[in-house]
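Two proteins, back to back. First:
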Amino acid sequence: MNRFRTLAALGALVALGACDKNAVQEIAGPESGARVKFYNFGVNAPQVNFYANNTKMTAISSTTGIESTTGVAYGALGSGGFYASVTPGAYALTGRIAAAVDKDLVIATQNATLEDGKAYSFYMSGFYNTVAKTSDGFVVEDNFPADIDYANAYVRFVHGSSNANPLQLIARAVAPATIVDTVGAVIAYKAAGAFEAVVPGVYNLALRYAGATTDAVTRTNVSFVAGRVYTISLRGDITVVSTTATNRPFLDNTTNR
């Protein structure tokens, strides 16, 4: 009996030591794995599910026990715009038809090596070919600053419109209107600019061709919050002049962190 009491007392002491208020507990650290955002910016493309090799990375929930035949629609992001985690390595990133007709047919593929601790965006882009049932695609690294200055917001431009020449992003502050930032360099299709620090506030955005004095694409009243990181992406058909057509040129604003 005394032996059991001694063991119980020792166990209590060990437990108390483990709960010492001065004990150091590691709760922070670099995020493991690679992360990917998925964009369906293929003009006229069907709804898709995105895959990394044969692993399904995005899906629409189903209450029937049968896989949904709806997926990520044109102009939308998979997983509500959140990153999906994946083991680092070489992948074929694909967009596959979600509908019952041509179910799981691959319509866009981009090969990429995803590195540990890094973030990426896979864009299904270009124009969907209804005969060949194919769309274009590309991957960019989301190389936002490791050390965020929380007095600023960070913004970059990604060019996702296949029939638009290289463009540059311009941000004009709504108030005070004196703040005008040229955000990064002139960017070609399938490329991404660097994340640039901007003063937090509400901006009117514009894209201009190199050397031009007029705006090619605009979007008004876009808010950039201090400490946040944003990607402004161009999608759509640059030749469309309608302000309401689904395939019009459009500036998408996505928060990276």
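And the second protein:
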Amino acid sequence: MKIITWNCNMAFRKKAEAILAFEPDILVLPECECIEKLIFKTDLKQPSSMLWFGTNKHKGLGIIAYNGIQLTLIHKHKTSIKTIAPIAVTGGEFDFTLFAVWAYNPNDPDGTYVEQVWKAIHHYKKLLKPERTILAGDFNSNTIWDRPRRIGNHSSVVKFLEKRGIHSAYHLHHKQIQGKEDHPTFYLYRHLDKPYHLDYCFASEDIAKNITAVEVGDHDTWTRYSDHVPLMVTIEAVLALTTD
């Protein structure tokens, strides 16, 4: 199974061909237009399931599945955390709970970015199980911006998840340290000299140990589409994941 998260900077329908070349099973797409606008070219592979969250029809959180995979919103979705959603993923190589993330809420006085993730993981903590759990998307955060005295910074989020057996796929696979990543996922103003790592896929240990590849797109290829590059995680389905 391949899960790709990519902040597409709107108008995904015009950029879909580029990312579909990597044969994703699930796409998590911050800044994606609403489903009504997601009309793809007939020669492109068509989705088996789609969900979307947001108030601006041009710029919300889209989740798109292929190859017969179905996406179902878990009824405990807290709409005040607008663009972080718990989703039941079924019909693929293994079933799991996906938290699709776009950490952005400019109207929340508690904080626009990582504070949204902090609120979400506490609200959904009973769903954050050490097996069959993935969080993926644009977290809009990095340890380099931690505010030590503020509850809910990036490092606090990472520690909270790690205590529940959920780890960053990129950091595990590439043996990276939070805040010192070798592979940026975002380029401010699309400038090569302003790189940051803001996009993540966290996976429970049963899934993480079966990750075979974690790829990060390069600036030259993707800058024509977005200020973000894709983060692509490939998981090998094994008996331990496909049986209860």
